[in-house]
Amino acid sequence: MANEEDDPVVQEIDVYLAKSLAEKLYLFQYPVRPASMTYDDIPHLSAKIKPKQQKVELEMAIDTLNPNYCRSKGEQIALNVDGACADESSTYSSKLMDKQTFCSSQSTSNTARYAAALYRQGELHLTPLHGILQLRPSFSYLDKADAKHREREAANEAGDSSQDEAEEDVKQITVRFSRPESEQARQRRVQSYEFLQKKHAEEPWVHLHYYGLRDSRSEHERQYLLCQGSSGVENTELVKSPSEYLMMLMPPSPEEEKDKPVAPSNVLSMAQLRTLPLADQIKILMKNVKVMPFANLMSLLGPSIDSVAVLRGIQKVAMLVQGNWVVKSDILYPKDSSSPHSGVPAEVLCRGRDFVMWKFTQSRWVVRKEVAAVTKLCTEDVKDFLEHMAVVRINKGWEFILPYDGEFIKKHPDVVQRQHMLWSGIQAKLEKVYNLVKETLPKKPDGQSGPAGLVSGDQRVQVARSKAQQNHALLERELQRRKEQVRASTVLPGVRIKEEPVSEEGEEEEEQEAEDEEPMDTSLGGGLHSRLANGLPGGRAAGGDSFNGHPPPGCAGTPVARELRAFVEATFQRQFVLTLSELKRLFNLHLASLPPGHTLFSGISDRMLQDTVLAAGCKQILVPGPYIVVSSEEEKTSDVYTRMLRSREQEETRLTGLSLILFLLLDVRLWTFPPQTAASPDEQKVFALWESGDMSDQHRQVLLEIFSKNYRVRRNMIQSRLTQECGEDLSKQEVDKVLKDCCVSYGGMWYLKGTVQS
């Protein structure tokens, strides 16, 4: 209180806020001119402004009659700038430097706290400033003089060269097409100095009229600095509470958001990151880090985050490689982007990066040249892939950047199995796109867990040699067994062969004996559909037994069997003909879309999958392969060879049953065409949905019967057979529908799906 009494209030002044010139008032500063030497009395020749940039240019006259002015120097400058010939475009029309230009620069970009004050009759009137500009002399005329000098030199050189040379030499030029601009390149170009200068130059100048300090128009404009009217209607912004007034004086954020420095694109603010949803946090972290162990990801997200939710989110944006998570390719290369090096679209880049990731699931090491040879991508793109997830080792190749995380593998087996299924689907897609051959890798012993090691060439040769020896021994034993069976039976005309029952069930034995009462058909082409149903004798097929045997009784009602049956039925309703390898690929993709812990992750064998297919109403189609027979001169007298030679004209012969055994006994050489796929024989089995409940069932059944006798057929043969079996002429649309459901066309011939390489 004592301090307040010692400092009494001397005078109270009313403050008014004038807004008439709020958007037009600028403060000009002349930092290179003393305050005592103003430009008020100097004539202003012209003025212009760029409002958006707040850029001003003023032209002021120079007193050429002043004794301090050097006239000869002024004439020399005018001559250098404009040359000897003066015209309308000349800078100095009087051939004397009689004016100078002032250019402005912004003193500050934030003028919210600055105002111009006018005190009159005990009242203080404030007008906010729109801009604060500093004006300095411009020396652009010197640049114009240099340009004139270079033009004169170029003209002189051109005149001399035209006299020496009669004609110009033909020059070779190189035409280059610009690559598509990526998003990052566009952002760099927009932020470049050249782009900003070009953008500033595009804004047009607005020409102004200058009025002196003591001009009547200036006096009139100065009246707008006073608040118009004393009713206080326009001064409501100054009627504030003490707290609001302090908030206006000291706002909470001292700098505007646009003035904050922009962080680099590779720098993350953890405070801002944790304000986002969990899925976005995981995506941003993986996109920036590229490769990360699960433990590190949990530590970055914080201890309060549920690990199950993180596992669910990480599988949407990353793939498991050697126990670590690697960001998916489509996250780094969005759909409409392209390579900044080669301009390759994002789809090709994603496929090449997936191949690199898949190679690291097989081995710790990858060779860059091998990747480039397979993917056909440029060196820079392949190097980018490898730098995301590997480090280079001299004379060794690229090693995966993180060690094998066995702890995560043991702790989350369901996630590991799901990722394995997903990688199997990706591998099948890569094999089809890049025509890869499955490499024989040594299997790990049971219970061994660890990173896949390098397989040397000697090891691969040893494995291949041992497998070839095993296959050779099996083939020899099978041939000997068949020869002994044929010798014991001594096949003669009229002799009937009784087949041993395969199943122990009584009903199947009775059907087998009833079947034995009929003579065996040894013809090469006919009798397949009447004698075999689904590749088996009619009795077994009627009994419902599958080609490889059903699962044990009671298994059909388990949740696993029901889920598998539902998948098989839904798949064959969409695609009527499938090979076992294609069905396995679709099943792996289906597993990858299921949540962790699903019942189908318990393990589905190939046999169980085949049995489920057959139990769902599908049948295996035994498509014959193309055979070419080569025999010695002595064997050409045999009756079997004569029938074989007659069928040789069709270039396709189906060998079944006893005919095949007789050819083996006669040592007739059978040569087949090269295999169309690298899949195993079981995976090449073709299954077809026999009845789907629509109007085309009969047409598809006739088509499948045709392909049980021929591995390729012409369209006219299919159409005639359909017309014969159905008793009516089918339209082109109906035939096209059946062919599209079951077949593919290649070289003018139609093949059953899965029997030729796509």
Give the helix level as a range of percent.
Answer: 40-55%
Strand portion? 5-15%
Cα-based radius of gyration, to the nearest Å: 45 Å
Instruction: Report the major sheet.
Output: 6 strands, mixed
Structural class: alpha+beta
Tally of individual helices: 29
- Which overall shape is indicated by the principal axes computed on the Cα atoms? elongated
Q: What is the CA–CA distance across the termini?
A: 98 Å
Parts with pLDDT < 50 across at least 5 consecutive residues: 255-263, 439-455, 490-554, 627-676
Mean pLDDT: 75
Oligomer: single chain
> Could you give the count of β-strands?
25
Strand order of the largest sheet: 2-8-5-4-3-9
Region (Disordered): 146-171, 441-469, 492-556
Keywords: DNA-directed RNA polymerase, Transcription
Protein name: DNA-directed RNA polymerase III subunit RPC5 isoform X1
Biased composition (Basic and acidic residues): 146-155
Question: What are the salient characteristics of this protein?
Answer:
single chain; 758 residues; alpha+beta; six-stranded mixed sheet; elongated
